[in-house]
C-alpha cells in the first residue's frame, strides 16, 4: 500500500512538471520564436533571391533566371509558382514566352508589353530605327539591321500584332510607325535597355 502512495506522489509531481513545460511552449510563441525546418528556410532564401532578380531585371524569363542563378528549371518553376500565389510577382505572356514582373503595380500593361518587346535584341533595334525615324520600310530595316526581308517581315508582324507598330500601305511599300499609345512608354523604357 505504501508503494502505491509513493507512486501516486511521483505521478503528481511529474504531471505538474508536464503542465509547466506545456506552458513554456506558449511563452516562446508569444515572444515570436518559432521552429524552422532547414529545407523550407533554404527555399525561402532562394525565393528572396529570385524575387530580387525579377525586381532588378523586369520582364525576365525562366531561362534567364535559371542560367543566372544556376537553378534547374523545375525547381525554378516551383519557386516562381509560390511567388505568384503569394502575389509577389506576376507573369506576362509575350507570344508564348512567359515573362515575370514585380507585382505591386510598378508597371502598367503598356510598359509590360514594351519591356517584353525590348528584351529581344533584334526587335529592340527595329523599334529604335523606327522611333528615331531613320528608316520605316521593310527594305530599309533589312538593309540597316543586316537581316533578311523575310525575317524583318516576321518581326514586324509580331510587333504589329502586339500593337506597338502601325502599318500603312503606300503603293507597294509598307510604312511602319510607332503606335502613339506606346510611344511614351517606348521612349521611357528604351533608356533602361540602352
From TrEMBL:
Family annotation (Pfam families): HTH_5 (PF01022), HTH_HVO_0163_N (PF24266)
SUPFAM superfamilies named in the record: Winged helix' DNA-binding domain (SSF46785)
GO molecular function, one term: DNA-binding transcription factor activity
Spans traversing the lipid bilayer: 6-31
SMART domains: HTH_ARSR
Keywords from the named record: Membrane, Transmembrane, Transmembrane helix
Domain of life: Archaea
Domain HTH arsR-type: 103-194
PANTHER family named among the record's database cross-references: HTH ARSR-TYPE DOMAIN-CONTAINING PROTEIN, TRANSCRIPTIONAL REGULATOR, TRMB
Protein name from the UniProt record: ArsR family transcriptional regulator
